[in-house]
Amino acid sequence: MFKTLLVAALLALAVEARPKYRVPRLDGRIVGGYDVRIDDHPYQISLQYHGRHICGGSIIAANKILTAAHCTILYEEADLSIRYGSTIQGEGGYVVAVKEIMEHDGYNSNTMDLDFSLLTLVSDIQMYEKAQIVKLDARDAVEGGRTAIVTGWGALYSGGPAPTHLKAVEVREVRRSECNNAYGGKISKWMICFSATNKDACQGDSGGPLVADDVQIGVVSWGWGCADPKYPGVYSNVRNVRDFINV
Fold it and tell me: Does the annotation count 213 as an active-site position?
């Protein structure tokens, strides 16, 4: 399947080169996090481009992975695989190739609305203590006041190195009105916002899971700046796309 180049990917580089410009940063990071084992978050996977980690994702069915559209829009199926059951990035666990990529039809790289992608694998994941399906947020779930965990192998600070060990960070939900005000009206119903003091504004690897009470409520999507308390991390809202996910 032919895919056009994602202009937003270039914008992500511009954030590092010219921080005075407030453009979306699509390479979500864990800043101020702590080491965890994959056994504690067995739904977490590494999305890989020819064996190199590029994004996070979550196991939502035996042969289905949920990630962000901006993580897959550049690639063909033959380019991608996932590694599961691994605490150390690039080591251990098991690798499975991607059979099909399906980005949400409504994904908009300018607004970052509907930043969802479903991957179908060539074979089923073998479930064990390090590989488990995560529950997804219900259609009638209530927003507001939630605390959640983000996991991933993202860089430790803006422009910094990526860890080899899986990390996590705890974040709290930011009122939709407050987040929308911070981002100048750019927060749609397809997004939710979370933040924490001295934590990165867009925690976790892009495409990775935002989980509250063992239920995935969001997908790491975008944010402005890095560890800037004025700009919460923005996550794609799982609750509102259950028909698309359909598992």
Answer: no
**Contact at 8 Å (CB) between 239 and 129?**
no
Return the sign of the alpha-carbon dihedral for residues 190, 111, 210, 43. positive
Catalytic residue among 58, 117, 195, 206: 206
Average pLDDT score over the chain: 84
Alpha-carbon Rg for the chain in angstroms: 16
Give the pLDDT score at 90.
87
Of these residues, 41, 53, 70, 104, which one is catalytic? 70
Cα–Cα distance measured from residue 187 to residue 17, given in angstroms and rounded to the nearest whole number: 25
Mean pLDDT across the stretch 109-116? 97
Q: What is the pLDDT of residues 89-99, one digit of tens each?
A: 889 999 999 99
Residues present in the chain in total: 247
Identify whether 115 is a catalytic site residue: yes
The active-site residue, picked from 27, 113, 115, 205, is: 115
Q: Residue 212, SS3?
A: strand
Q: Which residues pair with 236 in a beta bridge?
A: 191, 219
Give yes or no: 214 in active site: no
- The pLDDT tens digits of the residues spanning 182-237 come to 999 999 999 999 988 766 534 458 999 999 999 999 999 998 866 677 889 899 99
* Chain centre distance of CA 44: 10
